[in-house]
Amino acid sequence: MSASGLYKLVRRVGPANAGRLLGRRFLVGKPADGLYPVRAAGLARPLYVRPHSSDPIVFSAILRNETYGCVGDIPSPGLVIDCGANVGFASVYFLNRFPGCRVIAVEPDLANYAVLERNLAPFADRVKMVRSGVWSHPAGLKMNEESYRDGRDWARMVRECRPGEQPEFTATDIGTLLAESGADRISILKIDVEKAETEIFARNYESWIDRVDVLVIELHDDECRNVFFRALSGRPFQIREAGELTVCHRQAA
Fold this sequence. Notes:
By secondary structure, the protein is an alpha/beta fold. The chain is built from 7 helices and 12 strands. A 7-stranded mixed beta sheet has the order 5-4-3-9-10-12-11, sandwiched between helices. A hairpin with an 8-residue loop joins strand 1 and strand 2. Helix 1 packs across helix 2 and helix 2 packs parallel to helix 3.
């Protein structure tokens, strides 16, 4: 199924039914702990989905239709940071496509993170997993109780804690992730964070934005787009649209 066919299916039958249909097509074994194994071309081991969630749709988009193929050919990428890693399919895509890269996968939602750990376990020597939300500064965060978009597993949002609330986790930021990695640059920065991009690109991005070679992001509304493009203004990125993604390649000086 092509990417356009996938989106048409979701629009026609809804995310839940699309997940069930795609799940039946790709499942290759019996469930274990509520997770079903699925096969993707080029992978020696199966990955895992929750069949009545958004997982099968994301699996199909990323690993069957290669949504992130839009990053193009990148010679010898080093560090990949996956912000909003969900259950790990984009991280797996990059790890499989670029055998020499390392990935930092960041995901705040506990249920998604549990599946992420399962899916990235075969790549443990090349992956660092972080349960956190990506933000612009240190802060205590909670999962947002308000439903966003269809309210499913691929649309979980975070928010800063209000006075008196206990945080579920401490925010991280891209500059800290880069510094702790030991790398000089980020070869690929993938961001799909359900509107948290308005916070990430509003402030404190100057320390790392000029050390990103390829940035691929899903911008969720006009506010997100305005904040993002203000941050990139005047910087030497070639920018294009690829479906729902905005792809930014740094131009050589």
